[in-house]
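So, does this match?
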Amino acid sequence: MTKVTMTVNGKSVSGEVEGRTLLSSFLREGLGMTGTHVGCDTSQCGACVVHVDGQAVKSCTTFAADVDGAKVTTIEGMANADGTLGTIQQAFQDHHGLQCGFCTPGMVMSAAALLAENPKPSEAEIRHYLEGNICRCTGYHNIVKAVLAASGQDVSGIAAE
């Protein structure tokens, strides 16, 4: 067992992990942060995306020990300080960028990483950036619209699908 310490959503946490413990497991089972979803365990679906030191990573293929000392942000850390939905989360709600909700945490985390890199992405750039996230419900149109809205761009002329 190895002791790991990291900052998760602004709070210092630590725990004992086996070398093979995945970050997704540490977050979900060790810390009770079940907002990070695991859909495939192979890094294909993107439901497990979190930020490690500001970079989007798929936590289902990242060892918890490898992020010892890092700053981790999960979907739970995307809300405003008062507990209300953050800008991206609110845009997903306002523009129906979710249906069953399973992919939503990973989509929001990926969208946040994109907007940190490119504050005003085009529709094509959003679609390209989100290629590593699978949604089986929405057809992506409203997810793209939500990301555009979260970036402050006008979406009034974008027809609903």
